[in-house]
Design goal:
Elements (H helix, E strand, L loop, with lengths): L11 H20 L13 H5 L21 H11 L9 E9 L8 E5 L10 E4 L5 H9 L3 E3 L1 H8 L7 E5 L3 H7 L2 H4 L13 E2 L2 H10 E7 L2 E8 L4 H22 L6 E9 L5 E2 L12 H5 L2
Parallel strand pairs: 3-4, 3-5, 5-6
Antiparallel strand pairs: 1-8, 1-9, 2-7, 7-8, 9-10
Helix pairs in contact: 4-8
Length: 294
């Protein structure tokens, strides 16, 4: 057996490695069996086994301690934020928050408010220029009326309208005109599927001018509900019409789908949102005449 003096001396690196190993073992012995070894991701073995609970419904705020306002009070505060702004430029916006599932069907439709918010929509009606339908379209407020003149203008790139209707008797001429490839990508091509090929032209034009589209997005339905110059009574009628339409849409979705209205918030272009409590006015609200004078 070789004497100790003849054995090779360990290197300094080997001594450091042994010291570090002994230190690690001492720490492990001190922590005991409850010590969790972590993986390269930084998570312990126990943590990696836990599954995250996913929420299947959108979050809704607790309204028990929330400040809520009558419609007239909300209008008063919003008007204070809109001082100095043109009365036709800012608009009242309504946000309806729903208690609903994330992966369920959404509410979407079109509503004709009693008091139109945007009256600048330019309507084109494709019909015979000397027909009763043309007279009805002009009476209802259509800005572009005709058949061949409309077809030629569209082919030349002159599209001076925002929405397009077609009288039922002119639908064949429309299909043969070849303007579908121009109006189709712009969403302007009349179609029976979307109710833009009509027999009653006057009613169709009025519906487009006063109509507003809405769609549920992440549990909230938003709509421009009125101009800032509307009276409280006009705004109230628009809100009631909109809420009735939403309730009707939720009722026809199906019995297996749970959708409930949780909160209604009124805001404007430059003002924050005010949660409504369902009352028209409170005991401290200003008179409707004062609010109408904005």
């Amino acid at each position: 057996m070789a004497s100790p003096s003849l054995l090779p001396r360990p290197s300094i690196q080997a001594i450091r490695t042994a010291v570090q190993l002994n230190a690690h073992l001492a720490v492990l012995n001190h922590l005991g069996p409850t010590f969790n070894v972590r993986s390269a991701s930084g998570k312990s073995n126990n943590e990696s086994k836990k599954k995250k609970k996913t929420r299947n419904a959108f979050l809704t705020p607790d309204l028990k301690q929330a400040d809520q306002y009558s419609l007239c009070d909300a209008i008063r505060y919003i008007q204070a934020f809109e001082v100095g702004q043109p009365s036709k430029s800012p608009k009242y916006d309504l946000a309806v928050r729903l208690r609903t599932l994330k992966n369920g069907p959404v509410v979407r439709n079109r509503v004709r408010l009693p008091h139109a918010v945007d009256t600048s929509t330019r309507i084109c009606v494709i019909c015979a220029p000397d027909s009763p339908a043309a007279a009805a379209a002009a009476r209802a407020g259509a800005s572009v009326i005709g058949e061949e003149t409309v077809f030629d203008a569209v082919k030349e790139g002159k599209i001076d309208f925002d929405r397009c209707l077609c009288h039922l008797e002119s639908s064949q001429k429309l299909n043969k005109s070849g303007i579908a490839r121009i109006l189709g990508p712009r969403g302007l091509m009349p179609s029976q599927k979307y109710g833009t090929v009509v027999e009653d032209v006057e009613a169709g034009v009025k519906n487009l001018i006063g109509g507003s589209q809405y769609r549920e997005k992440q549990g909230v339905i938003r709509l421009a509900i009125g101009q800032l110059g509307f009276t409280p009574e006009e705004l109230s009628r628009n809100i009631k019409t909109f809420m009735t339409a939403i309730k009707r849409d939720m009722a026809v979705i199906g019995d297996n789908v749970s959708k409930e209205i949780h909160e209604v918030v009124l805001s404007s272009t430059h003002a924050p949102g005010f949660s409504l409590n369902g009352d028209f006015r409170s005991s401290t609200s200003p008179t409707t005449q004062e609010l109408s004078a904005f």
